[in-house]
Amino acid sequence: MLVLMNLTQMREFDFESRAKAIYTAYDSKIFRADQDIMNALFCVFQEKVLDIECRRNFHRGYCYTENEDCFVDNRTKNICFCDQALGSGVQILNGIGGKFMSDLQKSLFISDAYKAFRDLDIFKDSYSSIFHTLQNQFNQIDPNPCFLMTAEA
């Protein structure tokens, strides 16, 4: 699950005190910390959640799923995309924790994108230069499916 938060709206919603109340009420039943608290909170306030769906997302997890939109056969090079992202482009790059900083094969393009944005000088570099850097890095990825990126894994 990817969570993007508008912090102004979260403050107006009084998220902190609501989360503390849930923690107090369910303390002995909480095992996944923030995930359990947010699930309990947004179960009640469902209108505060916007499902951004697969079409806006890029995530390795789609290589393991075969739901209505995301198929393991949608590979460009060694990276899986959902149907709509192949047509309209990736709008959110999703990595988990240290994956952004990892040079491991299983992190593939995510760590390259992280480093390109980390090293970007917004006063000197153009967005087209970062695009070309990422495009070159993407084109250097091994085009053969690797063990970690197949449905059989």
Automatic annotation (TrEMBL):
Its main location: membrane. GO terms for biological process: protein O-linked glycosylation via N-acetyl-galactosamine. Keywords: Glycosyltransferase, Signal-anchor, Transferase, Transmembrane. InterPro entries: Glycosyltransferase_8. GO terms for molecular function: UDP-xylosyltransferase activity. It is a single-pass type II membrane protein. It comes from the Eukaryota. It is found in: Membrane. Belongs to the glycosyltransferase 8 family. This is Uncharacterized protein.
